[in-house]
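Troubleshooting: if your tokenizer reports a length mismatch, compare your output against this known-good record of 243 residues.
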Amino acid sequence: MQLTEKLEFDHDDRRDIYDYVERHGSVEPERARRSLNMDHRAFGHHVAILKRDGILTETGGDLRVAYEDDVHDEFEFDGVTVSIRQAREEDLTGLVGVIRQAIGDGTYVEAETVADVVDHEEVLLRHNELESRMFFVATVETEVVGWVNLVVSEAAKLDHTAKLTVGVLEEYRRHGIGSELLERGVRWAADNGIEKIYNSIPATNEEAIDFLSDHGWETEAVREDHYKFDEEYVDEVMMAMDV
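Known-good structure output:
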């Protein structure tokens, strides 16, 4: 199922099962059945249909929302192999830590907000009637070292746009990982009918602004004194790119 696919169910029980799994990210089937107070036979029947239709999948014994994007890219620098793939729910704790470590002094407020929301909800990937959320991660061996995140509103007037954040741990920068992640995010946006992507950055984060500018992003607006860091007001630079 594509993350931007509109949700339609022909049975209320199937919608309830999907909503429960989507809300929890990954759940053992029996736990879901008990929580929804469904008969064993009916629950199994509805799950089978959801799996058949590519809406749910079962991995490691847990039910999850099925997302179609499973492309796995690899490249090397200095003998180190970097993999870029769709994030998994088990990446959650490590990914939140990477985002917070990568933003360092907190001058990437959009990314900090993403980390806070994911940490609070305890779910990485989302697809519901309010919004869709996709993550791709860069890994070295089994460790997450960077990410790109896109959030798409399901509102009809906004579902052609997405908010994007991207970042890499300091020790892995300047090796092209950020560029590969950004390209992966843009490619996903194009494949899913997104026409424009946005990113907002404090004016003091010149490295991030230069990075996006070098990759074809343009400044669309500046909101004066939008942020306040240590009693100092900082402008917000609103950047965008047509996909």
